[in-house]
Amino acid sequence: MPAGVILLGMADHHEDGRKVIARNKKALHEYFILDRWEAGIVLLGPEVKSIRAGKVSLAEAYARVEHGEAWLLDMHVTPYDPASQFNADPVRARKLLLGKREIRRLIGATQQEGLTLIPLDLYLARGLVKLTLALGRGKKNVGKREDIKRRDAPRELQRAIRKS
């Protein structure tokens, strides 16, 4: 498919077959992204159904490594109504599926001061729910202002060209 072409109805699909379900939009604004990993998530059946329906929020979510395991905390998955008796706590801790080598790298990285693990997006890949996990350093207000200036500069230039 040529670059820049988007098929109708496929705007949320990537070329590699991923369908993005939820995105943490604030993460790129709040953090400098240093590294990324793909992780699986241990979920219950009703949670998968709810996620497929798009009833999930990554806004307050973060990850932590404890006792050699990675955990996703504060991701909100709305309970799936038809499975009401089998639903779990909407914000329960969910285990992330990563290799031992990746977990060791995460442990070393998060022990550095000011670095945190944040989920960037949740997506379906070949029928499985996956998460893009990122190592981030919090931005100061100055960094956020610089990002806004960098983003707005081309717009200001276009306005000036149109006016003259």
Class from helix and strand fractions? alpha+beta
End-to-end Cα distance: 38 Å
**CATH T-level topology:** Small Protein B, Chain: A
Q: Which term fits the overall shape?
A: globular
Order of helices and strands: EHEHEEEEEHEEH
What is the name of the CATH class? Mainly Beta
Total number of domains: 1
Beta-strand residue percentage: 25-35%
Mean pLDDT: 82
Secondary structure layout plus pairing:
Elements: E1 19-23, H1 25-30, E2 31-41, H2 45-52, E3 56-57, E4 62-66, E5 69-73, E6 76-77, E7 94-97, H3 100-110, E8 115-125, E9 128-138, H4 141-163
Antiparallel strand pairs: 1-8, 2-7, 2-9, 3-6, 4-5, 5-7, 8-9
Characterise the protein shown here.
There is one protein chain. The chain is an alpha+beta fold and 164 residues long. The protein has one domain: Small protein B (Small Protein B, Chain: A), CATH 2.40.280.10. Helices cover 29% and strands 34% of the residues. The strands form two sheets. The protein has a seven-stranded antiparallel sheet. The termini are far apart. Residues 1-11 have low confidence and may be disordered.
